[in-house]
Structures are given as C-alpha cells and as structure tokens.
Write a structure and sequence with these properties.
The chain is of the alpha/beta class and 452 residues long. The protein has helices at residues 14-25, 66-77, 80-87, 100-112, 143-153, 198-210, 218-223, 233-238, 299-306, 331-334, 359-377, 390-400, 426-448, and strands at 7-10, 30-33, 57-60, 89-90, 95-98, 117-120, 133-135, 158-164, 167-169, 179-180, 191-196, 274-280, 287-290, 317-319, 322-328, 347-349. It is globular.
Length: 452
Amino acid sequence: MVNIQPVQVVGGGLAGTEAAWQIAQAGIPVILYEMRPQRLSPAHHSEHLAELVCSNSFGAQSSDRASGLLHEELRRLGSIIIRKADEHQVPAGGALAVDRAIFSQDLTKTLTQHPLIDLRREEIHQIPAEGIVVLATGPLTSPALAENLRHFTGLEYMSFFDAASPIVVGESINFDIAFLASRYDRGEAAYLNCPLNKEQYLHFWQELCNAEQAELKDFERETAKFFEGCLPIEEMARRGEDTMRYGPLKPVGIFDPRLGDHRDPENRAKRPYAVVQLRQEDRAGQLWNMVGFQTNLRWGEQKRVFRLIPGLEEAEFVRMGVMHRNIFINAPELLYPTLQFKKRLTLLAAGQLIGTEGYTAAAAGGWLAGTNAARLVWGRSPLVLPSTTMSGALFDFISSTSPRHFQPMPPNFGILPELPQRIRNKQERYGLYRDRALIDLANWLAKSGVRS
C-alpha cells in the first residue's frame, strides 16, 4: 500500500467538516484540527463539529430559490452536510431548518468513526508549511492564526459584524396571543407569530432604539462594518420608524386564524400592524428562534425590551443574542475559483473565511476544497464548477470580482450568467436558472468523473 501523506484540514466548522469528509471518502487520510473545547470562540457553545452558531436554518428549501438550488446541487454532489441536514430537519415552513444539537452531534460521531479521519483537538497558530492544507477556520479565526494569515497573504484581511438571534423556551410563550400561521396561508404553519398594534409597535421601536448596547472593544469599534444581510435589530430600528415593518416584522399576509376568515373585508381592521416571527429551533418544538433579531444589546436590555413584544412578556431565554467580528480574506486578490491560493497551490480555503455567506455556501466551499485537495494528492487537475450553477457562480464571483470593494456574498440569482432570453416573470426566470444549473451540473459530473 502506498504511504500517502495526510491532508491537513484546519477548522471543524461546516466547511472543514465537509472538506475532511470528501477527502476521506476519496481514500486519503485526513488530520482535522479543531481548537474547541481547548479554546472557545466568542459564539460557539459546544465542542461538536459543524456547530450552527447563528440560526438553525439553511435557508429556503425550494430549488427555485437561491439557497434551495444550492441545497439541491450539494445533494447531487454527495455533501455530508446537506445529507445530515435532511436527516435532522425540523418544521420551518419553506426553509430547511435542523435540530442543531442533534445535527452537530451526529456529524461529530460520523467523522470520528471514519477510519481515515484523525480529529485532533488543538489550536493551530500557523498555517502548516508542508503538504496539502485546507484552511477552513471560518469567520472566527483565532487571533494568532489570523495574524499568520495576514503575514502570509501580505494583505490586511477585512471584517464585518455578524450577530445571532435569541432563543426562547416554547413553554414561556403566551399562546393566547401568539399564533401559528404561514404568510398568505401558504404551506405548513411553521412560524409562530406575535402581533403588535401600532401603539405597541411604536413603544417597542422607541425602547429598542434607546436600549443599551454591549460595549465593543477598541479594535472592533475601529473596524466595525455591518453586513447588510444580517443587521442587528437595533441598528435596523435606528434607520427609521418603519424599517423593521418592511423587514423582519413585516405583517403582510399574516393573519390570526382565530379571528375568522382573513378574506372577509370586515376582518381587515384586525390585521396586525407588525409581526414578530419565531421559527422552531428543535424537533420537539421546545425552543423558538426570534427571526431577524440578531442583536448586540446587553443581555439585561434584551430581556427588558424583547419582553415588550406581545406574547413574550414572560419569555425565558436559553440563549441571548450575541455579536462578534467576522474575518474574511480578500478572495479576489488571493484565490483561484478552485479555492487554491495563488501564492501556494497546495493551500486551499473554504467557508465564510473566503467571503461566501451562509451555512450552505460554507458547505459548498468545503466540498470543492476537499475534492480538489484529494485530486492534488492523486496528481489530478483541480476542478472548477460550472458558473451556471449556484455553487460555481459563488466561487467565480469571490475569485473574480473587484477586490477594492469586496464584501461577503450569499447565494443569489444575481451572480448567475444571464439567460439567453429575457424573462420578465421572476418565478419563471428562477425556474429556468434552476433547470439550467441542474442540467449543467449533471453534464459536468459525467465528464469530470466525480462520484456523488
């Protein structure tokens, strides 16, 4: 048997977990480094691999939505992350959400039982100098490794602030006020809705604007830049009285079925002025995540202000909202679409560190980096995913866009190449994007010889 040098994967988040699995499945030994529990990050709460620290949702599930298309591509590519997400799914309307504790526990067990994966619980302070390496340390890369990465690239990394929403105990919610309903009665009623009238909303808005925030450290204050896709709720409130009502508190299409038929004109006056939605966090429905309520408020202020929401007056919080600085590299300057560093082809990167946003995008990066690391071991050319797929478009974007104003990018149809014909109907257009992506992916898989 040929003695193969193990590939080293640094970071046991979604990207690192996916990368390690793909490498091992290709018959190559892997050393997977994860610093937890030896050293915890500002956002993690457990030692398990692939812990979901912000939300338990992977985004919209339908394949004619950007995140749903990426889910489907990863299923066809044989992603371990998406396979386990499907296995541990909890009700969330049209979203793919999971019981996050069971999800990460299962992935940890699955990887540690693989005969070719050596999980080492230790912090890596420098990029390994020898061999093939996948860097997947995520947006919370430890300070020592971040400084080493800065020195290696010769560039200042960039940063933005990301935040996690509070989680509420279901038994503490007042179900005489809160109600289960889906927007426009579409699909399963998987979201819990807390309605506010105008007076309640304005009082909540004013208290939220005036609430005390957690103090940022000096280095964080100097570099603070909010990612628009994950604004703290208090920052959103300060942008205007109605900003939240056009965002996460949008009441359109939400109606309490206990009040009668929403189509009855006499019931129009009963429609809420604003709605706070909670998404089921676990399979049993004992925990509920406050949708869109990422926050940097002090914990005491969170309890005070969020209990002003009708239905949450006695809310018990199992996790308060937290906020932390996320690090990402200037990928257009540094990476090829294969996710190899231009400066060192045996070093690859994946996950939010490279400027993709969201859980599914992190898994996609882990898949490509792991697959290409394995191909390098076997002396094969690294792969580039078709730019007409959502995954390929993401990696094409982060490796080719202007580096001057580069910011993290979530999956979206705007980064895909235009269709040959102009389609005005958005739903039809997205469906055609999906069909093209999946056909091109199938053809690519057949030609590349990648096993799903």
